[in-house]
Amino acid sequence: AIAGKGNYIHASNTHVAFNELYKELEKIEKSDIEDVVYSKYISKFYIPLWIAFVLLIVEIIIYDKKILRMSQFSWLNKRINLVLLLMLSFLFSSHAQTREELKYLRQGNSHYYLGQKLDKKATELKHKKGELQQSESAQTKQQAQDLYEKASTSYLKSNQSNSDYYKSNFNLGNSLYKQGKYEDAATLFDKVINTPSINKNVKSKAYHNLGNSLLQQKKYKESIDAYKESLKLNASDMQTKYNLEYAKRMLAAQQQQQQQQQKQDKNQQQKDKDQQQNDDQQQGKDENQQQTDKKNNQQPQQKKDSERQLDALQQNERRTLEKVRNAEMKKMKKIPQEKDW
C-alpha cells in the first residue's frame, strides 16, 4: 500500500472496513472524475453567405442588362427581382436570429469556462491548511456557482427558437451538472443522445456525461450502461474507461452494503422475534405467578374465616352450657332442706 501510495484497510471487522472503503471511493470520485465539456462553437458560416450574396447581386446586374434588351419581358424582370428580394430578406432574417442565438451560446461558454477556472482554484485552496484559505475557497466556489447559473441562463436563451438545438442542450446539461442538478442534467444529455443526425463524437460525449450524472445520483447500474454505450462509439476514450471501472467498483460496494444491511436487518428481525417470544414467556410466567399468589392469598383468608366461624360456634356452645348450668342452679335453690335435729 505504501509503495503504491494507496491505503491499507484492516478487515478484522467487515462492517467497519466496508465503511472505510466506501469513504475512500467517495474521495476518488470527487478528485478524479471530470465531465466532458463541448468545445466552443465559433460561427463562420456568414463568410460564404456574404460571398454568395455579392455573387447574387452581380448576377442580378448582368441579368438586368440582358433584360433591357428584351423590354417586352419587363414584367418577368420585375417578378424575378421581387422573388430574389423575398428570398434574401428571409435568408438574412433567419441568419440574424441564428447569430443572436449563437451569441448567447458563446456567452454561456465564456461564463462556463471562467466558472471552471474558479472551481479549480477553490479546490486547490480547499486542500491547503488554514482558516483564511478555507474561507477564500468557499467564496471562490460560490463565485463559480454564480457563473454556472449565468451560463445556464445564456444556454436557455440560445435555444429559444429551437429547443432541440443539441449544442445548447449539451452545454446546459454541463452547467446544471456543475450546480449539482444531476437529474436535470441527465435529462438534457438523454435529449442530446436522441437528437437525430448528430455525429458519433457528440453522442459519445453525451453518453459519457449521462453516465457521470447517473453516477452522482448513485445509479451505478444505469451509469455503467451509459459508459458502455459511450465506449461503443469511441473505444479509445480512457476517461470513460476509468469511469466505467469506477462505477463497477461503486456498484459492487453498494451491493455489498445492501447485502450487509439485509443481513443486519434479518438478524435484527430474529432478535426482535426472540425478544417477543421471551416477553410472551415472561408474561405467561407473570400471569401464572399472579394466579398462584392469588390462590395463596385466598387460602389464609379461608382459614381465617373458618377459624372465626369455629370460634363463634364454640362461644355459642359455651354460652348455651352456661345458661343450662345457671338454670339448674336455680332449681336446686328452690328444693327445701330437711332439719337435722
Topology:
Blueprint: H1 14-32, H2 46-68, H3 74-126, H4 131-158, H5 166-178, H6 182-193, H7 200-216, H8 220-233, H9 238-334
Helix pairs in contact: 1-9, 2-3, 3-4, 3-5, 4-5, 5-6, 6-7, 7-8, 8-9
Describe this structure in words.
By secondary structure, the protein is mostly helical. The longest helix is centred in the last third of the chain and has 97 residues, at 238-334. It is 81% helix and 0% strand. It is built from 9 helices and no strands. The chain has a domain at 40-126 and 136-156. Mean pLDDT is 77; it is low at 39-43 and 90-97. The chain has helices at 14-32, 46-68, 74-126, 131-158, 166-178, 182-193, 200-216, 220-233, 238-334. It is rod-shaped, with a radius of gyration of 49 Å.
Short structural description:
With 341 residues, the protein is mostly helical. It contains nine helices and no strands.
Mean pLDDT: 77
Largest sheet: none
Q: Tell me the number of helical segments per DSSP (H or I, 4 or more residues long).
A: 9
Provide the β-strand percentage band. Answer: under 5%
What is the count of β-strands?
0
The helix-strand sequence is HHHHHHHHH
What fraction, in percent, of the residue positions are helical?
over 70%
Q: What is the global morphology? A: rod-shaped
Low-confidence stretches: 39-43, 90-97
N-to-C terminal Cα separation, in Å? 145 Å
Structural class: mainly alpha
Question: Tags for this entry?
Answer:
single chain, 341 residues, mainly alpha, rod-shaped
